[in-house]
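Figure caption, in words: inputs first, then the predicted bound structure.
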Amino acid sequence: MMTLMTDPGQSIYLDNAATTPIDPLVSDAIQAAGKEYYGNASSLHSVGAQAHEVLEQSRERLASLLGAMPSEIVFTGSGTESNNLALKGVAFANAHRGRHIIVSAIEHDCILRAARWLERQGFFVTYLPVDNEGLIEMSSLEKAMTDKTILVSMMHVNNEIGTIEPVEEIGKLCRKRNVYFHSDACQSFGKIPLNVDKMQAGLLTVNAHKLHGPKGVGALYIRSGVAVEPLLHGGGQEKGIRSSTENIPGIIGFVKAAEIACSQMESEMRRVTELREQIISRLYQEIEGVYLNGSRTYRIPHNINFCIEGMEGEGIRLQLLLDDAGVCVSTGSACSSNDGGNPSHVLQAIGLDPFQARGGIRLSLGRFTTRKQVDDFLTIITEKVKQLNPIF
Ligand SMILES: Cc1ncc(COP(=O)(O)O)c(C=O)c1O
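Bound structure (pyridoxal-5'-phosphate present):
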């Protein structure tokens, strides 16, 4: 049986890359929409027509935030689903052109596992290494492309180390080589500027729960003309690409959350960068042996990932000690806790050994992270680190 250690309302929640608390304005909008727009958007009567109208308005609003056309937005049930649809859908619809796909070695598990599954279906996948900051090297990407390459999938921002990938350059190269470019933007949408045209993306994944929206709602941008084979067959919703009755309240909540996030993006980027810099400099000052994982320059404001030299084996214990004190963070082995706590593939890809890669502590900030919480966190972690024992 689960016991709740601390009241979530009282927590210092620094795990916003895992998920975010829902914005009260968004939950109000979802509740109201559940009552008002209960119709099936495919029904022909007036209740259905109202649901359909609000669905199409939501599509337009999301499209305008991404720089897309409304007809290029497909609503899905999650970021995982959008990523699976992008990879498998493009692979199967374009297999006649070639069977080679390139993904980065630091993609989210839903991309990596979809890619491995595609290998079992007869596709060939290159898992492109990254440098020690987590950045894709354009020359290696160019070398990896062949005339059989149909798709490159590279995330915009990495969920563990916050590295911002050179997506515009990747998009340009893909366009030049006539290869589809898909980007997983779950960690960047609403946090840093994003535009499908600037990125020259053919496909782009976004979801709601990383930007203070509801869980279980996502979207896939599919540029007009890009061939995608559906994964779900049924009533033909979402232009036949994603059958299933649309989750209207969830979609309304997603769009509301995205609009709030995008409208506050500039000031939030400044505010959160200040908090991040305060945390990094205090960690360096107060804790001996701290080293930062990821890029100092190409980093989303919201992410800090660090290890403590000699204490890497104590990562999970530090997480538990912090949790006892009401602070929620992630570790390099729990980012994917369904994996049974394997060391982070991302930290290993940037050169950490498996032992070090278990010891990464990820702090991810959000719109509701306050300066007071950051100050309290810094006091708590400085105390808790004293209880750790070096394990080699
Ligand atoms: C980069 C990235 N892609 C995809 C996902 C999966 O999104 P969802 O939880 O909506 O399936 C996540 C969330 O964990 C993520 O961080």
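The longest helix spans residues 265-286.
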